[in-house]
Amino acid sequence: MARIRVPALAAVAALALTSACSFHSVATHWNERVGPNGQPVYVRTVTNIGINLAVILPVLGNTTIDTMIGEMTREIAERGGDRVRVIQTTSENYWHGFPPFTWIVTPVITDVSVEYEPSQAEFDEVAAAADEGHEPAEEGRDADHGEAVPDPPPKR
After folding, report:
1. CB–CB of 114/43 below 8 Å?
2. 72 near 112, Cβ under 8 Å?
3. CA 90, 93, 96, 98: dihedral to nearest 10 degrees?
4. Distance between CA 38 and CA 36 in Å, rounded?
């Protein structure tokens, strides 16, 4: 029985070490506010988690800012978006997490956020979804949240 567990555990560990993660999100609901050009703007954020070897050698994942911006602007161009402005970029190298292990296998987390003007087709698609009641920003807006805020203390 122990002979089966060791290869299975090794396979799971190898799979975990050979995969990278990427998280994407787009903010599309701005309550009819517009950007500086008088056009609606969307904010797209991508977070990539990867692995470096010996702190600086990329092994898994797309963790360089240049590559991430290239990937993100390609996605925006495919959807017909225009006028991209980078809002924020961060790259965290966690070499200090569990030394000396993380000196050899180093987790890296990189975030890029951009603002862009969506194409008319993308804007219409989001507007149609909002008209069907799928707008997450509207959920709970009119609900009574009195239980979340305590009553003020009595005046003395």
Report:
1. yes
2. yes
3. 120
4. 6
Look up residue 53 and give its two tokens. 């070897």
Report whether 65 contacts 91 (CB < 8 A): yes
Residues making up the chain, counted from first to last: 156
Residues 44, 86: Cα–Cα separation, whole Å: 10
What's at 127, amino acid-wise?
A: A
Q: Could you identify the residue written with the tokens 């979340």?
A: 148
Q: Contact 37/85 with Cβ under 8 angstroms?
A: no
Q: Give the tens place of pLDDT for each residue, 49-91.
A: 999 898 888 888 878 888 889 888 999 999 898 889 999 999 8
DSSP 51: E
Residue 124 to residue 130: CA distance in whole angstroms: 10
3-class SS shares of the chain: helix, strand, coil, % to 5: 35, 30, 35
Taking a C-beta distance cutoff of 8 angstroms, is the pair 51, 60 a contact?
A: yes
Backbone angles phi, psi at 78, to 5 degrees: -65, -30
Which residues of the chain, if any, have pLDDT below 70?
1-20, 133-156
C-alpha 50/C-alpha 106 separation (Å) is: 8
